[in-house]
């Protein structure tokens, strides 16, 4: 009986050891859990760095295939576009759409196992919200000589938070309530420019707006006095791949060209 | 009839028929050209909304129709209140209402077309883009309004960038409650010397 007991206890240990080995082997087949991004949210004009969400005992990975597509507000979506097969990828929130990132993971064979684990697929989505405002960056209240132009710079914002530098699209303005001292009122402009322009453009998450003072009536404008004024409405226009037009309205600001001395002028609100 | 005569009759018949076909086809080929030439000569933009004659001008058909008919971007907006003057809420509401109607009607009298004809010259540095009108006054009268409008043109340069055109054309209409617009009179702005004035305001 004692012998039998010893044998049984030995068997028990053996079974436990085998079970331990099996469990270790099973844990070695753990798959990628998902996609981890830094930062967590994707804001307009910003980028996020994405990696597979791995545990300590994830199976050896043979390759990762990252793909991205954009889903527009009307429900249409671009085809999946392969971004790369590295261990990480960067997603850029260029336009206000839903970005979907797909990670297909292919695993290596494990010694002793007949076949590698099946590939896994994970998809993660980020909805990028529209820009809805701007803040003054530079150019306002600077005195410059008449004849020189200056550049106003606005940071594009979403809810008083600066957007990132990767915003895509074309900046446009519409000027209303336009008044020119010495002349009178001018009609509102349409949304301009209609084509990319070096004097009014979107770049680096900012709108660059070149101004020059009208000198036609310089001599009759009092010092100090208003040369011209207008309400400036701003927006970003962009198209989807099917040439549908979208607009992000950025609000409006009063723009005043002021004569500050016999030789200098400035732009104020 | 001898066989020789019979052959001559047949040949003559064939020639008559062929000649007829040829002349008919020539005539029918010439007809559209004649029609086109006639329509090109009569450059008349007749709009039943207006009760004044629309006469041909020196403009080409293409330029004329581009400026006169439904060109995108026609706007009428209430003029700003002049310094030292006030505008009541009712007056402002009238102006906005009439401006909206006029934007929809988009009147373009031929005199205005003639006044801004210089925009269509091949050597013009600025191209016509659209009309931008300022509604100076909408004075209530029995059954409608008396309307005073300052008509101005928007332009672009060769690259399509905005150019301001400073010439102004004054127009007066009556607008009845049924939305019918009747032309009264028009003239160039007294400050205009009829020379093309355009440029960038810098704004």
Q: What does this entry look like structurally?
A:
The complex is a heterodimer of chains A (269) and B (203). Chain A is mainly β. Chain A is 10% helix and 48% strand. Chain A has 1 helix and 18 strands. Chain A has a 6-stranded antiparallel β-sheet, with no helix packed on it. In chain A, strands 8, 10, 11, 14 and 15 form a 5-stranded antiparallel β-sheet that branches. Chain A has a 4-stranded antiparallel β-sheet with strand order 4-3-6-7, with no helix packed on it. Chain B has 2 domains: 1-41; 61-199, no CATH class. Chain B contains 4 helices and 7 strands, in the order ααβααββββββ. Chain B has helices at residues 3-41, 61-68, 89-105, 110-115, and strands at 75-78, 127-141, 144-156, 162-165, 169-176, 181-188, 198-199. In chain B, a hairpin with a 5-residue loop joins β3 (144-156) and β4 (162-165). In chain B, 24% of the residues are buried. The model of chain B is unreliable at 19-58 (pLDDT under 50). Classes of the chains: A mainly beta (269), B alpha+beta (203). Chains A and B meet through β12 and β16 of A and β2 of B.
Give a brief outline of the structure.
The complex is a heterodimer of chains A (about 270) and B (about 200). Chain A has about 270 residues and is mainly beta.
Which terms would index this structure?
heterodimer; A: 269 residues; mainly beta; Immunoglobulin-like; 2 domains; 6-stranded antiparallel β-sheet; 5-stranded antiparallel β-sheet; 10% helix; 48% strand; B: 203 residues; alpha+beta; 7-stranded mixed β-sheet; 4 helices; 7 strands; extended
């Amino acid at each position: 009986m004692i012998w039998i007991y010893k044998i049984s206890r030995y068997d028990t240990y053996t079974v436990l050891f085998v079970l331990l080995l099996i469990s270790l082997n099973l844990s070695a087949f753990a798959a990628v859990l998902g996609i981890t991004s830094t930062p967590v949210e994707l804001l307009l004009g910003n980028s996020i760095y994405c990696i597979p969400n791995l545990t300590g005992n994830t199976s050896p990975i043979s390759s990762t295939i990252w793909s991205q597509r954009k889903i527009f507000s009307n429900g249409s979506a671009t085809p999946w576009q392969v971004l790369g097969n590295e261990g990480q990828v960067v997603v850029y929130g260029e336009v206000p759409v839903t970005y979907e990132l797909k990670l297909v993971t292919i695993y290596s064979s494990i010694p002793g196992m007949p076949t590698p684990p099946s590939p896994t697929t994970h998809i993660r989505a980020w909805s990028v919200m529209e820009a809805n405002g701007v803040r003054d960056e530079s150019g306002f209240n600077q005195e410059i000589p008449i004849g020189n132009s200056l550049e106003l710079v606005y940071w594009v914002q979403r809810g008083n938070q600066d957007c990132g530098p990767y915003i895509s699209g074309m900046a446009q303005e519409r000027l209303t309530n336009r008044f020119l001292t010495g002349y009178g009122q001018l009609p509102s402009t349409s949304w301009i420019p209609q084509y990319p322009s070096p004097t009014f453009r979107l770049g680096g998450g900012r709108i660059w707006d070149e101004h020059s003072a009208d000198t036609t009536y310089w001599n009759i404008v009092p010092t100090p006095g208003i040369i011209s004024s207008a309400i400036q409405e701003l927006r970003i226009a962009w198209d989807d791949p099917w040439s549908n037009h979208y607009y992000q309205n950025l609000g409006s600001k009063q723009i005043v060209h002021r004569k500050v001395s016999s030789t200098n002028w400035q732009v104020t609100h | 009839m001898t066989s020789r005569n019979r052959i001559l009759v047949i040949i003559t018949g064939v020639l008559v028929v062929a000649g007829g076909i040829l002349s008919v086809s020539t005539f029918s080929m010439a007809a559209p050209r004649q029609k086109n030439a006639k329509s090109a000569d009569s450059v008349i933009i007749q709009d039943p909304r207006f009760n004044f004659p629309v006469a041909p001008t020196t403009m080409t058909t293409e330029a004329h129709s581009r400026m006169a008919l439904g060109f995108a971007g026609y706007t009428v907006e209430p003029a700003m209140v002049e310094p030292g003057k006030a505008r009541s809420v009712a007056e402002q509401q009238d102006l906005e209402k009439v401006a909206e109607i006029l934007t929809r009607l988009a009147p373009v009298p031929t005199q205005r077309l003639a006044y801004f004809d210089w925009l269509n010259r091949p050597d013009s540095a600025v191209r016509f883009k659209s009309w931008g009108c300022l509604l100076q006054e909408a004075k209530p009268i029995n059954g409608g309004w008396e309307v005073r409008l300052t008509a101005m043109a928007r332009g672009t340069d060769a690259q399509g960038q905005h150019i301001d055109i400073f010439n102004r054309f004054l127009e007066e209409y009556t607008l009845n409650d049924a939305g019918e617009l009747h032309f009264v009179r028009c003239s160039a702005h007294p400050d205009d010397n009829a020379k093309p004035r355009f440029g960038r305001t810098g704004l």
